Every structure is written in C-alpha cells, then in structure tokens.
Amino acid sequence: MHIICAYHVCREYHIRIASYIYIPSLFRGILDFVRRRKLRRVAIFRPDHFLPPEVYNKCDYCDSSVVNMLSSAMLDALSLSTLFAYGVSKVSVNDAQVLPLKSKLIDALDIGNNCDNYNQREDYDPWIGINKVKDRLVSFAEKSVGRPGPLIHLLNPDVDQNLMAAMPKRRKLISTYLTEQERLNLARLLVKDIDRYSYKMHCRNDSCECAVLACNYRIIPCTNEGCNATFSFKHREQHDADCGYKLVPCPSGCGMDIPRNDVHVHVRDKCDLRAAECPLSSFGCTSIVRAQDVTPHLNDNADKHFMLVATRMMEYQTVMKDMSARIHTLEEKNAQLERELQRTTVQLQSKNEAKAISNDVKKLTKRLGTLEGTCRTEFKKVEYDRRNHKK
C-alpha cells in the first residue's frame, strides 16, 4: 500500500492528505483491487499543535505586504525545487512528484519556532524573523533537492537561463498544488508566530473582537478605477501615493486629471499647455507656442505666414527651373548615349557578319582542298590503269 500526501490549507488551517493518483476498480477483478488499492487518509493540520491558543486565535488580518511576499516566496521555492528535481524538459508534474516536496516545504517553514523575541519586547523588529524564513525559502530547492551538478552544466551550459525561463509556466502549474489561499493562510501563521509579542505586523485583537472593531490590518481594495490591488488598511496612504491609476492633476496646470501612469504621455502629446511648433515651421516660422494657442497664432500671423509661404514657393520655382534644365541636359545625354549604343550595335552586327563570312570561306577552302586531294588520287588511279592497259 502506498501513502501519497497532499497538503491543502483551508480557512480553518486544515491540511488534507489524500491520494488520487490511482483508484482501483472492482470491475478489474478482486486481485487488481487488493494489489493496487491505495490507502487514502486525511490529516488535519491543527494550529494549536504549533502555536499557543492565545497566538493563533488572534485576528487573521496581517500586514498584506509581508503576507504577499511570503506567499510568493513559497510558490517560487516549490516551483524551483520541482525544476531542480525533474528538469526543465518535463512540461508537467504529477502528485507523486510534487506532494512530497510540498510536505518538506511546509516542514521547512517550522511554524511555531520562528519567534526570537524571547524577552517579549514590544520594540522587537519582526523583520528579523521574516527574513530568516525568507532565506530558508530561497535555499529550500537547493537543500531539499540540490542544484544541477557540474555534469549537467557541462552538457547544457545554459541550464541556469533555462531554469529562469521555465519559472513562469512552472509557477502557474505549481499554483494548483499550493493554492493562493493555502499560501496566504500559512503566511499569516508565520506572521503570528514571529510577531506574537510586538504586534507590528498583525492585529492584537481576537478574531471575535475585530468583527466589531475597525482593524488596522483589514484588507481593503483600491478605490481608483482600473486598479485591482488589495492591501492592508494601514497601507492605504502609501498605495494611494504610488498607485498608477490614481487621478492626479496635470503638472503643466491645464486643469485635467489623468491617471498617474499616463502623465508623461499626456504632457508630451495631449496637454493643451505643452510646447508646440507652428504648423508652418517647415516654411520658416520659428515660433513656439502652447498647443491651445496654435490656431490664434495662425490667425494673428496670417500675413507673415503668407510671405513665408510665398517666399518658399518662389524658392521652389527656382529649384524647379534648375531641375527642368538638368532634366533636359540629362535627356540629351541619354539620347546621345542611345545613338552611340545603336552605332555600336550595328558595328558589332557587321563584325559578326564578317566573321561569319570568313568562317564560311575557311570551310569552303577546306572542302576545296579535300576535293583537290580526291581528284589527284583519282587521276593517279586512271593514269595507272591506262599504263597497265597499254602493256
């Protein structure tokens, strides 16, 4: 029998362990069922096994920036460990490959043993413990699986670049095994563990009290249109100061409110107070006016612009005359070249004809020479026959 463990963290911090890799069927026969059955069990992750009740019963609202950072680090650690273990070429992974690593990851978080504030000082900086957990997550893949060895680097020198290139798809795949809600719940437990006495990253009220009181760490959405960010209430001013969707007045003072992300485009291309060249700058007008004053500028300087256009047209006429003269000269040269080409062609044809006649004469001469030789031979035979006949 095999036991495959899968952690699932729900709102009550339960972690369920189960196996869905192979489900035996009685239709395959009783032997198949007995041999291939798998033990499925459910394990309950109880926070009171790791944290005292007075710690885990506190309000679940924690510093959103810390929780999100730890959540992302968990996903990166598990994704990278699967890449180290099974390589980049493996497109998909299964439960048997991921779930044991997931169990190791949750064990590596060491929830309940991360608080260094032994003196219970309220001036304790919880970032000390948070950074230690983050360092463990960063080194988790290397310690649990091991980095690709020298032989792998020798066979594939670009293995590190390939790992980084494969991370986005692997993160998306691993997020189905370690869901966002699981990561957030684990991160909140870590914050409660580390910040159990100083309360600089989470609420000191009990959960039941925060239902009535306005918790400073409660999660709120951004009110700016188009922004989907959520964050702790205490970070609202900081987010509002950095949000790219926040409407801000035009820095040039045109009176329009635009999203912070579009300010540079507005100032450069759309603001009525931006500096703009005169549309007739190509004709010689060097005036720089505000965009909203372009039309009045054209109306107020119509005479000046007319003179500029007229001057430029006269210049164009002079240039066109010069071009016409050059075109006429080029046409004459072209005609002369065509006549010379025709003469050369005729001469070449004459030479070719003469050469052909010469070749014909040579052939005839050769044939005549052959005929003369034949005639001499025949004459000699006739003379020889005649002499023999006289005898």
CA distance, first residue to last residue: 132 Å
* Helix percentage range: 55-70%
Question: What is the helix/strand order?
Answer: HHHHHHHHHHEEHEEHEEHH
Which percent band covers the strand fraction? under 5%
> Uncertain regions: pLDDT < 50 for 5+ in a row?
1-24, 33-39, 150-155
Q: Can you count the beta strands?
A: 6
Quaternary state of this entry equals: single chain
Shape: elongated
Q: Can you walk me through this structure?
A:
The protein has a domain at 51-211. 56% of the residues lie in helices and 5% in strands. The N and C termini lie far apart (132 Å). A hairpin with an 8-residue loop joins strand 1 and strand 2 (230-232). The model is unreliable at 1-24, 33-39 and 150-155 (pLDDT under 50). With 391 residues, the chain is mainly alpha-helical. The longest helix is centred in the last third of the chain and has 89 residues, at 302-390.
Feature tags:
391 residues, mainly alpha, two-stranded antiparallel sheet, 14 helices, 6 strands, disordered N terminus
What's the structural blueprint in terms of helices and strands?
Layout: H1 30-36, H2 53-56, H3 64-86, H4 95-109, H5 127-138, H6 140-144, H7 150-155, H8 159-174, H9 180-194, H10 207-210, E1 219-221, E2 230-232, H11 236-242, E3 247-249, E4 257-259, H12 263-270, E5 275-277, E6 288-290, H13 294-300, H14 302-390
Antiparallel strand pairs: 1-2, 3-4, 5-6
